[in-house]
Specification:
The protein is 40% helix and 27% strand. By secondary structure, it is α+β, with helices and mostly antiparallel strands. It has a single domain (2-72), classed as Glutaredoxin (3-Layer(aba) Sandwich), CATH 3.40.30. Helix 1 (12-28) packs across helix 3 (69-76).
């Protein structure tokens, strides 16, 4: 099972990133746990300086922008 974390304080772009991640998981049919981190201190501990950000299995995949659906699907393959 993949562990995906979406980082962001709740801004519109952060919500978009979470929605795209959840859609990619649903469309690919993989088993994944999607978590949302909105606490600034937790984001800093993870090395996130720009949001939205997404990590997969502990590896940061994108920061500072909303990922594209196909991009996220590629991370899950």
């Amino acid at each position: 099972m993949k562990k995906i974390t979406v980082y962001g304080p709740g801004c519109a772009k952060c919500k978009d990133a979470e929605e795209i991640v959840r859609r990619a998981v649903a469309e690919t049919g993989i088993e994944a746990e999607v978590n949302k981190v909105s606490d600034i201190k937790d984001m800093m501990r993870a090395g996130i300086m720009s949001t939205p950000a997404v990590s997969v299995d502990g590896t940061i995949k994108v920061t500072g922008r909303v990922p594209k659906l196909d991009e996220v699907k590629g991370w899950l393959a």
